[in-house]
Amino acid sequence: MRKLKEIILLFLITAASCMNGCAPPKGVDYTADGYSLNTYVKVTLYGCGSQRIAEEAVGMCSYYEDIFSRTSADSKLYELNEKGFLDIKTEEDKKLAEALELALRYCEMTEGALDITVEPLTSLWDFGGESPSVPERGHIEDALEHVDYRNVEIGDGRIELNGARLDLGAFAKGYIAERIKEYLEGEGIKSALIYLGGNVLCIGKKPDGKDFRIGVQRPFGEADDVLCALKASGLSVVTSGVYERAFYEDGRLYHHILDPETGFPCDNGLLSVTIIAEDSCLCDALSTACFVMGQEKALRFVNGLDGVCAVFVDSDYKLIYSEGAEDFTDK
Ligand code: ADP
Ligand code: MG
What we know:
Layout: H1 2-19, E1 29-36, E2 39-46, H2 51-68, H3 76-83, E3 85-87, H4 91-109, H5 119-125, H6 137-144, E4 153-155, E5 158-160, H7 172-186, E6 192-196, E7 199-203, E8 212-217, E9 226-232, E10 236-241, E11 246-249, E12 252-255, E13 270-277, H8 280-293, H9 295-303, E14 309-314, E15 319-321
Antiparallel strand pairs: 1-2, 2-6, 3-5, 4-5, 6-7, 7-10, 8-9, 10-13, 11-12, 13-14, 14-15
Helix pairs in contact: 2-7, 7-8, 8-9
The structure holds adenosine-5'-diphosphate and magnesium ion.
The site of adenosine-5'-diphosphate has 21 residues, from α8.
C-alpha cells in the first residue's frame, strides 16, 4: 500500500514536471547513488526527469562494469584477457570493441602516455589488493615486454591482443559517463550531474541558470577540502591523483598511475591533474596521460588542444593552470 502511494506520488510529481515543459516545481530533484566501478557513483537530475531515470542511469554503471571490469571473472574484458582474443558477436562484445577503438585513439594521441595494455603491471602492483608491495624488478621487466597498445588489433569481427593484457581503469569511467549522458539527454534531461568517483560530468546548467561548481580536491585531504572550485556548465571535470590508490613502503609513496616506459608509478612532482573539457572520455584519458607526461610536457600538450584545459597540483600544493583554465575558477 505504501509502495503504491509512493508510486502515485512519484507519478504526480513527474506529471507536474512534464506539464511545465521540464521546468517542474522548484526543488524537485531526483538522486540515485550506489557503489559501482570500485567507487561511489551518484546521478542527480535537477528539476526534471524522474526517480526511475536517475536509477536507470546509475544502473548503467553495473551494466558496463560487467563488460569493462579487469578483475571480475564474468566480465567481457576478463574473457578477452584470458583468451587473448574475442570474436565480436554479442551487443556487449560490440560495446567493448567500440570502447577499445576509442581508447586506442587516445593511446596514440598521447603517444603511449595512456596505454591500456598496462594490465600486467597493474596486476603486479595490485594497488587495490589487501597488502600491496613493490614488485621485484625482474617481474616488472617481464611485464613491460607486453606493454604496448600497438599490439592490440580490432578488425574482421575480432579483437586480438597479441600478447597484451588490457586495463581500462584510466578510461572506463569517462566512457560510461558519456553513455549515461546520452541516455539522460535522450530522456529530455536538461540539467544533471553525473558523479562517478572523481569523474564529474554536468549536463546543462543548474536550474537557477548558474554554473555548477566542482572542487579540485586537496590531495590527501578530505573530499570536501578543495584547493579551488571550477565553474562548469555542459562540461566534464576529471581528476587523476596520487592519493586515490596508493601505499607506502620504506617511507616512499607508490601510487596507481604508472609510467608505461618504466613500469613504476610516475614520480614527477605532481599530486594531481584535473582536465576540463566537454567529453568525459577525453577528460579521463587525458587526466591520466597528462599525469604521466609530467607538468611541462602536459602543459604544452594541453595548450595545443582546442577546448581542453588542465589544472595541475604540484608537491607544494601549488595550482598550475593551462591557458584559459583560470577562467573556470571562482575568483
Ligand atoms: P582513477 O581510476 O582513480 O579515476 P585514473 O583515471 O588516472 O584514476 O586511472 C588510473 C588507473 O588506470 C589505474 O588504477 C590503472 O588501473 C590504470 N593505469 C595506470 N597507469 C596507466 C597508464 N599510464 N595508462 C593507462 N592506464 C593506466
Ligand atoms: Mg583517467
